[in-house]
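Methods — Computational structure assignment.
A single polypeptide chain was analysed. Its primary sequence is given first, followed by the predicted tertiary structure written as structure tokens.
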Amino acid sequence: MSRAWRTLAWAAILVVLIVALTPYLWIVLTSFKGRLDALASVPVWFFQPTLEHYPDVFVEKGYLPLLGNSILVAVATTALSLLVGAPAAYVFARRDFAGKEDLFFFFLTTRMAPPISVVVPMFLLFTMLGITDTPLAVILAHSTFNLSLVVWVMRGFFAEIPKEIDEAGMMDGLTRAGTFIRLLLPLAAPGLAATAILCFILSWNEFLYAFVLVAFEGRTLTVGIPGLVTPHGTLWGQVAAVAVVATLPIIVFTFLVQRHLVRGLTFGAIKA
């Protein structure tokens, strides 16, 4: 690549970064602005920062439990989806049985229906079970659409692993379950990491199920943010503070598994 093309590529990357990061930077700055600076008609970049919005919203308005609910729901949903979906994906990748492709297509169709079409039946079912207004209801609801994602993505990862590894493990005395746990799961770790991030983000950002299935005790941050829109105006500083805190777990979680993320997202794209 010539020097001119390299310079052009770096310039394009810089433009993309500016476009992508400027809105987030503006949210961070707004979370430290006073009300007059936040509502100024001309954007204010230099101001006297204040930390009052964070204790106001998380302590005085009681949003800290909502943050805990969001973390609980997202982590539990991701764990449950992987716990059920990874073995199912392994079966779809390795075993042949009657109706296999039809059943696999059924898993995919669970993501095709509009969420609004199933949230009311879910509400009625969970009401009968007595678990509405609890994080468990949201966890089960989020797992329904994350499960199909896990099965679909992980099936491709397991299909890329040579079947000879299964045979070698069973020749060494491992059961099929032992082969799956001790040999295939470590090899599929990049795929698990990438899928876990997708599941976590989808669950963390979800609004409709969390809004309909819980009212008070099980509320998540996404459901709590509209409560900052009052008859006297929107509390933009507190909205920005909640938005900043809401992004932190995703950033931290992504950095924790970034070693596997790139390989996981490109696994199987190039074959020898």
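Note: The chain has one domain: 62-231+245-266.
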